[in-house]
Queue: 4 jobs
Job 1
Amino acid sequence: MGDIDYEVEAALAFHDDDPKATVATLLADIKHLRLQLALAESAMSPGMTRGWRPRYEREDGQG
């Protein structure tokens, strides 16, 4: 759990300990990465990935 604590502290420090700015940046990152995933999915053929399809939600129920 130490790595996560460090990453949280680093993200907050980057935003001058402003939690709203930190969350806003993380949400913007999620939106951007989902768009990139959708674009990659549309460019991939099923044969290239042997039927694998990306998932937009985490499998562990956290996302």
Note: The mean pLDDT is 85.
Job 2
Amino acid sequence: MTQPVPKSDIDAAELRRAPRDEVALPTRMIDAQNRAADVLLVNVSPLGFMVREYGSTEKGAIVKLQLPRLGDVPAKVVWSLGGRIGAEFLTPIDQYAYTAMLNAAKARRQRWPMG
């Protein structure tokens, strides 16, 4: 079965290859010039993520997302719209490491509630 061709970046976001886990985790994202920015990790999967940001990271940019237990994980931005970006990890996270990261992210979220 083939998937429909996305007509926009939002359509592309809806054609995810893996289900996402909701996390609401404050973290940092580092750009190609090694500048760090505070972001809110909204959801994540072993293949990619969505964050809310104050800046305007462009589609195609290579970034590093700081993840619990994994450190800085490189990714490519595949869409950017209104303070939100979706990105795909350059190398998928293996299931064992992903589960450990997700458990740590959920524990940290409880200590840092968002208002």
Note: The two ends are 43 Å apart (CA to CA).
Job 3
Amino acid sequence: MKKGLAAASAMLVLLATLALPGTPDFGGTASAANADTSSVKAATAIASTMQARPAENNAEASDSWAFAKEIQVAQGAQYQALFLDPDIYGRAEENLGDVRIVNASGQFMPYYTDSGEEGERGLDREYPLELIDRADGKKEIRFDFRVVQAAENEDVRGSRLTFSLPQASFLKKVSLDGSYDGQRWEAVTTGELYSTGEGAFRNVIELNEPAKYGYYRVKVPNGPEPFDLEGMALIDVGTAVSGEDFRRTKEIPFNVESSSGMSEVVMYNADKLRIDRIKLNAAASDGSSGFSRAFYVNREKGTGANTRILSPGRLNRLELAGSTVDDTEIRLADPIRNEKPMVVINNGENPPLDIASIEIGYRVDRLVFEDTGTGPYRLVYGAERQETPQYDISAFRTQIEQSGPGEATLGKENASQFVPPAAEEASGAYDGEGPQIGASASLQITFNLILVAVALVLIVFLGRKLKKK
């Protein structure tokens, strides 16, 4: 009798080991003495395992995208370029790894990302400028400078110019030209140079984009007082943006907390925009005509002055030479994406500034993809733990940019969930037309039913044997 029970137990254990992945392995070492109890327990475990499968591990990347925007393509262009907006930065992963373009069939479309940023070539590389000519006219003084290269045939690049200013009090609205050969000149930008002679000054002119000129011409209005420029330098900021196309501006909410002679101006950057300019529209709260306050920028509370500033380190609103100077825009060397950055202002013994509004400048990215005629297209985002895709189209970036991609636009945000077709098939998602069961799934179900039937027969058989005993 014991041999029969042991054989039945061994058969039951064998069936248990053939169960689906996730079925407990009860082993095959039960002795004849405890075969009765082990066999019943094993059969019961098989039946319960068939009813309650282990939960799948959901710690992987999400296969669903929570948000979408329709893409309106430009007619007649093979390649399309579209700029991202605050909705996307606010809901997508910080590295934009979950952003995808899909066609009408829900298939992902290849694209590459363009940030408009020039590659870094060392932190703030500086080129001295040599004065090669000066011309004093009735209306203006013209200073011509040559960029002094560190090495012969070096590819010069710069995004800001600095000057050693005279000690006197003055205000000059200057214009800047650039040249590659010192003969043909083109307008670059305009700006202000000023000094109160008592610590408030501006000695910097920022370029709107990195430039590779070998010569610069500064034109300054002539006046009754003698004026000279010395010690001029060109500086290459590593993360400068090429062109205004990649810049946007908007007002953002803020709050001011003042104590112990300091004001913390907290900005609410809920969309995690890449801020590189901060314009404070401010006035002296005591009715004074001007102010000059030192400041620093803090990425988040409690971390101190941890952001490099390109503009002078004071917020100035002054009356000079009969004109008002409103120099309250802060330019940052590197963008910040923190949700609550702050400007910390040193008020000294003065009352806090009256800040009416804050306008930020932020950088945006551009996606470029090929219109294959499979639209309409959508931009989807809002999926967790997705890796940034790598597409072959990146290898043809130079040729695509030379062809001039069309300017596509984004529609309103849609919060309906998007699941790619491949993910739906892999997960067996219900589509309203009945269960999706393939050949392998049907075979597995049949095998499970056979296991349950055999287990029940063995339970009955063993039960009868136990009663006879």
Note: Confidence is low (pLDDT under 50) at residues 1-59, 426-442.
Job 4
Amino acid sequence: MIRCLRLSLVLSLLLATGAGYAQQAAKFTVSGYVRDRATGETLIGVAVINPGSGQGTATNTYGFYSLTLPTAADSVRRLVSYLGYEKVRYAAKAARSVSHTFQLQAGSSALAPWPG
């Protein structure tokens, strides 16, 4: 009886671990840096948004962004927006983690509206 309970517990733990791994494997990450095109300086607090899922993030103090998305997305679309710079729209096929650096051109003074 105790042996059967132990085996049941071990199997439950293995299944739970496998399910968690499957959920993790169903995602990928897009990441990179955002820089000023003219100076090459990294830009802090730039909005990087995936309009399809409504997920977004902002660059950190090093100008780095990282966004984890489900692999169900047919293509990755990003909208990069920063006050005083022109908005950038970017689309690419992605089934695995990718890195992309954006270079923003000074110009527009308005932030993009949140998609929705």
Note: Strands lie at 27-36, 47-50, 55-58, 64-70, 76-81, 88-92, 98-99, 102-104.
